[in-house]
Amino acid sequence: MLQLRTFKRGGIYPPHEKLSADAKIIFGEIPGNLLIPVNQHIGRPLKITVKKGDAVKRGDLLAESTGFISSNVHSPVDGKVLKIFRFPLLGGLIREVIQIQPTEPGKSFKEVLESDPYFDIDIGSLTPEAIRKRIEEAGIVGMGGAGFPTHVKLSPPPEKKIDALIINGAECEPYITADHRVMVERSSEIIKGIKILQRLFENVPVYIGIEENKPDALKILDELVSKDGDILIVPLKAKYPQGGEKQLIKAVLNREVPSKGLPMDVGVVVQNVATVLAVYDAFYYNRPLTERVVTVSGNVVNQPGNILLPVGTPVSYVVKKFEIDVQKVRLLIAGGPMMGRTSHSFESPVTKTTSALLFFDNRVFAERRENPCLRCGSCLRVCPMGLDVALYTQMIKADKIAPEAKDHIQDCIECGSCAFVCPADRRLVQWMRLGKTIIRREN
Amino acid sequence: MEANGVLIMDSSPLGRTGESTRKIMFTVCLTLVPALAVSVWMFGWDAVRVLVLTAVFTVGVEALIAKFSNTKIDYLDGSALLTGILLAMNVPSNAPWWMLLIGAVVAVVIGKQVFGGLGQNIFNPALVARVFLLISFPMQMTSWPLPGAFDGTTGATPLGILKTEGIGAIKTIGVGDLAMGHIGGSLGEISALALLIGSLYLFYKKYITWEIPVAFIGTVFVFTGAFYLINPAQYASPVFHIFTGGLFLGALYMATDMVTSPLSFKGKLLFGFGCGFFTALIRLFGSYPEGVSFAILFMNAFVPLLDRYFPDKKFGMVKNG
After folding, report:
1. How many CA within 13 A on the CB side of residue A29?
2. Contacts of B311 in chain A (CB under 8 A)
3. What's the ipTM?
4. Are the C-beta atoms of residues B94 and B63 closer than 8 Å to each other?
């Protein structure tokens, strides 16, 4: 095996807690009720195309994009539009959702998937335009968490020459194993998905970056691609935030995305493995992005696992399926503990970007109170962007942001490494977010 | 579906390493134990008296301020205790109780709380108090009980002897005596070796980093060494200089104080260099025999500038593509 690569600056080593690493992806049933958030992406808000009482089929458009940076939403099941209203999403924000009453609640979702027809397409015959169009239609967004429309990321302006495609299988967040299981169980589909993306950029080498703590995924994919000269598996050191786009590019290609820049500025396009799988599904099964693998874990989950869920599934379905004792749950996190969001409702739905649902009692993460900054420098030491977090947060708090600090504050990737190590329990990520907001308002 | 209680809403990240202000402060205090043990061995119960009194005074003063302050002050977070221990290490073992009380008040009130408390002070509180005492009570602060001399005889420090009596008077003091503490001085001045041993754990925990101590001691060594080479008959050897006075205490525990030292790599190096430069300057040409305290306090004032003008390179500060 190759030597482990990683980014050089900063980073932390939180416990991996990959409790569900060996749990096969299971399939549930169609829940009795789906709440499909209208906007699950970054970009222009969608226009709802259905109304109360409409009958919808699996794959039907529910809300359509209103511009280039926007992404369609489809129905994962046959059913009826019950209601369109505002409801708390995972993370607590109250946003518009489309409530669907499925025609066949309780039906195995595996059966639903198996009844989707398979198309043995010839990738060679697809034009780049057709590929981008299909990805756009299918409502595919970055499934690593950000939810940025994938077709936009795949359409760099012509002056940005792309010479490398990186597939992100780092999965550096503790607990989450969704990408890991996808890489183990659907490896050949991922490779086929990559072949589709390769059509967009002539002869670009492809790198699949995977952290060393997923040896089975590394082995399976390495065997699969050994025949392909242009796909390389890159084992990465298990260091957080290895899966951060800029950190991944630094580790794999030793290129540094410039401040305030994008991966395409250094000739790279990065896609998450789950996103690549969604691309595969969009072409070979003509499926829009309406389901995803979600890790269910945490210290009150007796049998942590991974489950394929239709978008819109309420958390309460997962609670029943995994026999979680709700009386014990004090903390519900959508995503990982480093960057995930807490939620206050068990009825909030899973979205395209929900990689995990974590359930904890209050023993794990104690409440914290901000203490004065000691200037110990821990935050500077672990910041993967090399930011002077301690100084910036003091400036932000005093509402006196030095001009030279502004660009740096905007470069914060909000990975949470600083707050993770802060001995004074300062809410550094929140201060940095506030700083970004202040700077954005000024501009 | 309803939870028994309300679900906690919080912002990411939700995990913690378990480091805390208290843990850092008490760890630093604990690493001073070897040096304190040497001083107790050398000065006997007098050292214990000074230590306990100063610690009780500093924590007491902080507790009093906490009681009347509108903001919440955790006077048991160990920072006041650390200030007390460091102050105790900077005074002679025969210091009267009222001097220690004045020192504690100066350290906590003028050194720390007037700036806004923990983390806000510009100058190292223990050093502010030491310099205040040195200027206010020069007699008491410069006549040092000699180690092992339990009959109350006092004398000057090796640096003091050097300053007043010249190079010939220090010929009899060996390096071993200096490193092991067989010299006159304050509680913390007398054993460079014990301080170094204690500080190793701080390096291991990354509570302190090498830049400041190495730059500090290195600069003193090079600077005094240059003059020693020019004229060994007039100037003491660099080895004598680095093992005497408060250099190890200052370089390892005072200049590296998190609150009052720079954050960046270059800033730390420059800070350490400045401390070393001014220490050597005062020792060689100043009217005071020792310059560590003054040098550190002087450099403390530059910390905001060093932070601002010598920041570390950021990720992405590269030419486009």
Report:
1. 12
2. 388
3. 0.88
4. no
Is the pLDDT at B321 greater than 50, yes or no? no
Mean pLDDT of B123-139: 94
CB A267 within 8 Å of CB A205: no
pLDDT at B118 over 60: yes
DSSP letter at B46? H
Burial of A213 (0-12, 13-18, 19+ CB in 10 A): middle
Three-class secondary structure of residue A258 per DSSP: coil
* Long-range contacts of the stretch A367-372 (C-beta < 8 A, 24+): A367/B8, A367/B10, A368/A425, A368/B16, A369/A425, A370/A424, A370/A425, A370/A426, A370/A427, A371/A424, A371/A425, A371/A426, A371/B21, A371/B74, A371/B77, A371/B118, A372/A424, A372/B21, A372/B117, A372/B118, A372/B119, A372/B120
- Report how far residue A154's alpha carbon sits from residue A135's, in angstroms, rounded to the nearest whole number: 9
What's the pLDDT score for residue B55?
Answer: 96
The answer to whether A374 contacts B207, with C-beta atoms less than 8 Å apart, is: no
- A263 φ/ψ sector (left φ>0, alpha ψ -120 to 50, else beta): alpha
Task: Give yes or no for residue A39 having a pLDDT over 70.
Answer: yes
* The two three-digit tokens of residue A255, written as one number: 């290129």
Gap from A236 CA to chain B (nearest CA, Å): 19
Q: Name the 3-class secondary structure at A36.
A: strand
List CB contacts (< 8 A) between B6 and chain A.
344
Say whether A293 sits in a helix, a strand or coil.
Answer: strand
**pLDDT tens digits along B220-241:** 999 999 999 999 888 888 988 8
Helix segments in chain B, DSSP class H: 21-31, 33-43, 45-68, 79-88, 97-105, 125-136, 138-142, 158-165, 175-180, 192-204, 211-230, 238-243, 247-249, 265-285, 292-300, 303-309
Closest CB from B17, B258, B320 relative to A377: B258
Mapping DSSP to helix (H, G, I), strand (E, B) and coil, where does residue B306 land?
A: helix
For A120, the token pair is 């043995």
Contact A249, A14 (CB under 8 A): no
pLDDT (mean) for A120-136: 92
Distance from CA of A49 to the nearest CA of B (A): 31
Element (H, E) at A430: helix A428-442
How would you label A93-120 residue by residue, b for 16+ Cβ within 10 Å and e otherwise?
Answer: eeebbbbbebeeeeeebeebbeeeeeee
Q: B10 or A373, which is more confident?
A: A373
Task: Give me the residue label for tokens 């077709």.
Answer: A151
Contacts of B32 (CB under 8 A, 6+ apart): B85, B86, B89, B188, B195, B198, B253
Specify whether the CB–CB gap between A6 and A211 falls below 8 A. Answer: no
